[in-house]
Write a structure and sequence with these properties.
single chain; 138 residues; mainly beta; 9 strands
Protein backbone atom coordinates (compact mmCIF):
# COMPACT_ATOMS: atom_id res chain seq x y z
CA UNK A 1 0.00 0.00 0.00
CA UNK A 2 2.85 2.39 0.82
CA UNK A 3 4.33 1.87 -2.67
CA UNK A 4 0.99 2.82 -4.22
CA UNK A 5 0.78 5.96 -2.10
CA UNK A 6 4.33 6.97 -2.99
CA UNK A 7 3.70 6.29 -6.70
CA UNK A 8 0.49 8.34 -6.54
CA UNK A 9 2.38 11.25 -4.92
CA UNK A 10 5.08 11.13 -7.59
CA UNK A 11 2.48 11.07 -10.35
CA UNK A 12 0.62 14.01 -8.77
CA UNK A 13 3.85 16.00 -8.48
CA UNK A 14 4.62 15.30 -12.14
CA UNK A 15 1.09 16.26 -13.18
CA UNK A 16 1.26 19.50 -11.19
CA UNK A 17 4.60 20.51 -12.65
CA UNK A 18 3.58 19.57 -16.20
CA UNK A 19 0.29 21.49 -15.95
CA UNK A 20 1.93 24.33 -14.12
CA UNK A 21 -0.35 27.06 -12.87
CA UNK A 22 0.17 30.03 -10.62
CA UNK A 23 -0.59 29.07 -7.01
CA UNK A 24 -2.03 31.69 -4.62
CA UNK A 25 -1.96 31.12 -0.84
CA UNK A 26 -3.55 33.61 1.55
CA UNK A 27 -2.60 33.42 5.21
CA UNK A 28 -4.63 33.96 8.36
CA UNK A 29 -2.16 33.22 11.19
CA UNK A 30 1.58 33.31 11.81
CA UNK A 31 3.71 31.69 14.52
CA UNK A 32 7.49 31.89 14.94
CA UNK A 33 9.44 29.07 16.59
CA UNK A 34 13.12 29.12 17.57
CA UNK A 35 15.64 26.30 17.61
CA UNK A 36 16.17 24.61 20.97
CA UNK A 37 19.70 23.21 21.24
CA UNK A 38 18.67 20.87 24.09
CA UNK A 39 15.79 19.15 22.27
CA UNK A 40 17.17 19.68 18.72
CA UNK A 41 13.74 20.93 17.64
CA UNK A 42 11.95 24.17 16.80
CA UNK A 43 9.90 24.12 19.99
CA UNK A 44 10.33 27.57 21.50
CA UNK A 45 7.25 29.10 19.89
CA UNK A 46 5.48 32.38 20.31
CA UNK A 47 1.77 33.03 20.05
CA UNK A 48 -0.14 32.04 16.94
CA UNK A 49 -1.32 35.52 15.99
CA UNK A 50 -3.59 36.78 13.21
CA UNK A 51 -1.60 37.65 10.13
CA UNK A 52 -2.96 38.46 6.68
CA UNK A 53 -0.57 38.05 3.76
CA UNK A 54 -0.36 36.43 0.33
CA UNK A 55 2.16 33.99 -1.13
CA UNK A 56 2.17 33.50 -4.90
CA UNK A 57 4.21 30.81 -6.63
CA UNK A 58 4.59 31.50 -10.35
CA UNK A 59 3.62 28.91 -12.94
CA UNK A 60 7.11 27.53 -13.56
CA UNK A 61 7.80 27.35 -9.79
CA UNK A 62 10.84 29.60 -10.02
CA UNK A 63 9.70 32.59 -7.89
CA UNK A 64 7.65 33.02 -4.72
CA UNK A 65 6.27 36.47 -4.01
CA UNK A 66 5.17 37.27 -0.46
CA UNK A 67 3.02 40.35 0.02
CA UNK A 68 2.19 41.81 3.45
CA UNK A 69 0.66 45.13 4.51
CA UNK A 70 4.15 46.60 4.79
CA UNK A 71 6.20 45.08 1.99
CA UNK A 72 6.54 42.77 -0.97
CA UNK A 73 9.44 40.29 -1.18
CA UNK A 74 10.59 37.90 -3.87
CA UNK A 75 12.22 34.52 -3.27
CA UNK A 76 14.04 32.77 -6.12
CA UNK A 77 13.80 28.97 -6.15
CA UNK A 78 17.17 27.23 -6.40
CA UNK A 79 15.95 23.68 -5.72
CA UNK A 80 12.56 22.00 -5.43
CA UNK A 81 11.42 18.53 -4.44
CA UNK A 82 8.44 16.61 -3.14
CA UNK A 83 8.84 14.96 0.26
CA UNK A 84 6.53 11.95 0.30
CA UNK A 85 7.30 11.23 3.99
CA UNK A 86 5.68 14.54 4.98
CA UNK A 87 3.43 14.95 1.92
CA UNK A 88 4.76 18.44 1.23
CA UNK A 89 6.80 20.36 -1.32
CA UNK A 90 10.20 21.74 -0.33
CA UNK A 91 11.81 24.72 -2.01
CA UNK A 92 15.29 26.05 -1.31
CA UNK A 93 15.07 29.77 -2.01
CA UNK A 94 17.16 32.92 -1.97
CA UNK A 95 15.43 36.19 -1.10
CA UNK A 96 15.72 39.37 -3.13
CA UNK A 97 18.23 40.61 -0.53
CA UNK A 98 20.32 37.41 -0.57
CA UNK A 99 19.04 35.49 2.49
CA UNK A 100 18.63 31.71 2.13
CA UNK A 101 15.57 29.81 3.37
CA UNK A 102 13.71 26.57 2.89
CA UNK A 103 9.99 26.89 2.15
CA UNK A 104 7.72 23.95 2.92
CA UNK A 105 4.30 24.01 1.25
CA UNK A 106 1.77 21.65 2.80
CA UNK A 107 -1.57 22.36 1.13
CA UNK A 108 -3.16 19.27 2.68
CA UNK A 109 -2.70 20.76 6.18
CA UNK A 110 -3.02 24.40 5.05
CA UNK A 111 0.51 25.39 6.04
CA UNK A 112 3.44 27.28 4.58
CA UNK A 113 6.59 26.99 6.67
CA UNK A 114 9.72 29.09 6.24
CA UNK A 115 12.89 27.77 7.85
CA UNK A 116 16.12 29.65 8.35
CA UNK A 117 18.67 27.23 9.78
CA UNK A 118 22.09 28.64 10.56
CA UNK A 119 24.70 25.86 10.80
CA UNK A 120 27.27 28.21 12.34
CA UNK A 121 24.82 29.50 14.97
CA UNK A 122 21.87 27.09 15.46
CA UNK A 123 20.43 29.17 18.30
CA UNK A 124 19.71 31.91 15.74
CA UNK A 125 17.68 29.51 13.59
CA UNK A 126 13.91 29.85 13.32
CA UNK A 127 10.81 28.43 11.68
CA UNK A 128 7.81 30.57 10.74
CA UNK A 129 4.49 28.75 10.37
CA UNK A 130 1.79 30.40 8.30
CA UNK A 131 -1.73 28.97 8.51
CA UNK A 132 -3.44 29.25 5.16
CA UNK A 133 -6.87 30.79 4.97
CA UNK A 134 -7.27 29.73 1.34
CA UNK A 135 -5.31 28.53 -1.67
CA UNK A 136 -6.14 28.31 -5.36
CA UNK A 137 -4.55 27.98 -8.79
CA UNK A 138 -5.16 29.79 -12.05
Amino acid sequence: MKKKTRLFAILMFTAITMNAQTVHMSTSYKQTCYWNENTKKFDQCGDNSEYASMFVLNSDESIFTHTTNDMKSSYYVTKKQYDSDYDEYEYDVTSDVGNKYTFFVDLKNNLVKIMSFKESSPSDSYLILFTLKSHWSD
